[in-house]
Every structure is written in C-alpha cells, then in structure tokens.
Fold this protein.
Amino acid sequence: MKELNQIIARLKPLNGEKIAKGKAICDQLAKPLGALGKMETIYARLYAMFEGNITLSKKVVMVYVADNGIVAEGISANPQETTFIVAQNILKGKTGLCAISQHVGSDVCLVDIGCKKDVGEPSKEKVRYGTRNMLHEPALTKEEGEQAILLGYRKTVELIHQGYTLFGTGEMGIGNTTTSAAVIAAILGLKANQVTGYGAGLTQDMKAHKTQIIQQCLHQHAPYKDSFDVAIKLGGLDLLGMVGTYLACAEYGLPCVIDGLISIAGLLIAERLAPAVLDYCFASHLSTEPAYALVCEDLGLDPMLAMDMRLGEGSGCPLAFFLMENACYTIEHMPTFSEGQLNKEDYIDIRNRTE
C-alpha cells in the first residue's frame, strides 16, 4: 500500500479563498444575487481549481469494464456476456453514452480492468478476469485491490498529461449494482433492504432474491476495517478503478463528474480513504437506485439533474459537462451591475433566508 498511501498524502482540499473569489464574480453580475443557483456554485469551484482560467474543452468519460463473480447467484436479469457485448459497442461508438458524448464533444476512454473476455486487444494491465463470488469468498485480494486503484490512477494521469481537464467516471459490468449496494451498505452501516434497487431491470421476486444475497454477503464478511477492506471483500474492479480516477483528479486539481450508483459507490470508497477528493467531484444526476440518494446525503452532494435516468455507462457525465461549460460561458459573458446600469443595492440577497 506504499504507493497508494503516498498518493493520498499528496492530496489537498480546494482553496476556500479561491472559491470565495469565484463567488464574488457571480455576485457582481447584473442579476438578483444567487439567481443562477447551481451554475454559480459550479463556477466558483471551477474558478478555484483553475485559478480563474477555466478550461473545459478537452473532456473524457473513463469507462471501467469489469465482470462480477456474484452474477453466478442469479442477481441479474442479464447474462454475464452482456458486459463484453456492451463494452465492444462502446469501442465502436454505438451506445447511449457514446451518442451523448458525441453531441457534447466529449471523448470516451474504455479501460478493461476486469472483463471475463478481453475487450479489444488483450491488456497486460488487466487486474483479473472478473472478481470472485463474494458470497463464498472475498471478491479480491488486497494486492488486486491496490492494483486496480493504481491502474485507474495511472490511466487518468496519462490523459491529464495529454491535456484533458474535465473527467467523468462510468462503467460496464453486469452485477455491479449488487456490488455497489453491498459496498454502500457496509460503509454506511445500512441493511440490504435499504440500498437494493432494481438494477438494469428485475422483477419483484428477483429484487427480493438480490436483497437476500447482499445481506448474506454483508454478514459473512463483517467486520470491516475501512472502506478499502469493504471494497476488496464486496466490491468490483470498476469501483476501485474509479477510486484511482478520483485520486488523480484531486492530486492535479481537476474536476471529475460522477454518473450513477456505481460511480458514487466508488466515490464513497475514495472519500473515506482521502476526504479531499470530494472537493473536486460533481454529481451529474439523481440515479433512481435508492442507495444513490443515501450516499448523496452522507457526502453532501447535490446532483445537477433529476431525469429518472438509469442507463449507466457514465451517461450522466457528458450531460453535466455541457451544463458546466454553459455555466462558465454564461457567467463570463454576462454584464456586471455597472455595465448593465443597475444598482446592486436594489437587490436583496435571499440565499441565506431561513423562513
């Protein structure tokens, strides 16, 4: 864990004074104070990260592909082969994520971190061909878990060095709503029935079975030392790859957007390891999975959108990219009070009103 601990030690929280400068810029615009809502809070945080020179034109969604051994317990309506098929479609640019990304000018980087079949050319970096069945044994070893985080970290750093400044996290892996729900329940101290959703599409009976399997796994592997221990016992390789992306973005002071349940489970792991990562992350949309809102509440996240989406792949990220770019353009091109010949004193600041 030496290299991982060294990375974590280098992370620093976002500078509060720089955030305040970003907010001050918003407060000088010709509008009621706070009238642009989340656009202003997004801008202020980006202003702090880029020290005023916000550059978001080169953006990418990191899609981590991994299979999960727990699929053997019948927790998904989709066959495991779906992971490989959809991953291949992503490489061809023929999925929902790809369509949204193409429209907003975002790239997609697919990382085969643990698919049971090689996606594209065989990779020497792949951690393993799917996780073990967590109902019977820990999903990963400690060494495999660290390897997965470092793979995500290095892949992200490579892209940073290529000039990418805006990142998103996505995934493809049948069974990963089960692993994510289990991880969230273990870290937050919840029961399986509080976190289990319908995933890609389950009947009521299948959801009940999925809930039971998750509860059995939670009980079998307890107690848990920390979030990393939870992740290797219950989690997936995709979750840990995302942890690496969050760490890299925090180290380099760059924004990272999370998608749905799997992305936020990865963020929960990362935040427990290194709280500073949260300063650099943005929630794109409110997933329909019940555990998503629970993690948002725990981490204090406020998603930009509520669109009843549950596609996965990272599809919420390019939508958020568009909103973030629009927020910056709008704020940087609006007139100030003086330019708009308005008096700031005529406006009442209602942002902190409690009544």
The chain has one domain: 56-326. The beta strands are 59-66, 107-114, 166-172, 256-258, 281-283. Residues 142-161 form the longest helix (20 residues). Residues 56-326 form a domain with the Rossmann fold fold (CATH 3.40.50.10210).
